Amino acid sequence: MPPPRIRPSSLFFSAQSPRLHTAFFHQHLHPQRVRTQTLTTFLARLRHQLQPSSDFTPALTTFRIAKTTAKLFLAIHLVFTYIGVIGPTNGISMVPTIPHSYRYTPYIMVSHLHRRGRNIAVGDVVTFDTPGPSSTRSCKRVVGMPGDFVAVLSTGRGQDDLGKQDDEGDWANVRDEIIRVPEGHVWLAGDNLDWSRDSRVFGPVPLNVLKGKVVAVVWPLNDAKWLGGEEAIADVKEGGHEPVVTR
Fold this sequence. Notes:
Layout: H1 18-29, H2 32-50, H3 56-83, E1 84-88, E2 107-111, E3 125-129, E4 137-144, E5 149-152, E6 165-166, E7 169-170, E8 177-180, E9 185-189, H4 199-202, E10 205-206, E11 210-219, E12 225-226, E13 244-246
């Protein structure tokens, strides 16, 4: 009589129960699948918790816009204050260097890198606040630096003209004399001397009131040009009036 056949236990590998052993293998020998699903779920929940609420998002956006706008205005302020600016001008005291017309407004480029007289020389056109209670921004040419002697020679105006006024105030009080520019000051004059209110009226101008240097005329285009250079002082000679500058 043959011996009885013994079936192997389902807990062991056998060809008769491949599905059972495969399930057992994946369940007990591959727990990382469960851990991966758990980690993915945790990260999804964390991402949801970190997202700003609907009430907080508009406030955050408004803050960012305000911050960007403040930075933009600060940058513009720094450029206009310390670098330069392009702006309008009027008056006839600097004709023909700076044109004048009732049909259009000339525009000039001013460098604020030359504030307080930094790197200013004879022949430069500068902007400044005119002395006096009714201070206004004006631009004139430097014809005398500290220590220079300036000969102001002018034929002046007739008595009928002395009571009139132009765009810049009273007519210049004409004097024929030699003046030494004091230290820390400059002597300023308009290129159109007959129609200029300049140092002949209010005297030498302190360097610390100079606001900038006019480097170019940018409008109108047919009069656009760069200013400065050794030949610039020649523009002051207008109608026989020539400030003579010697050291």
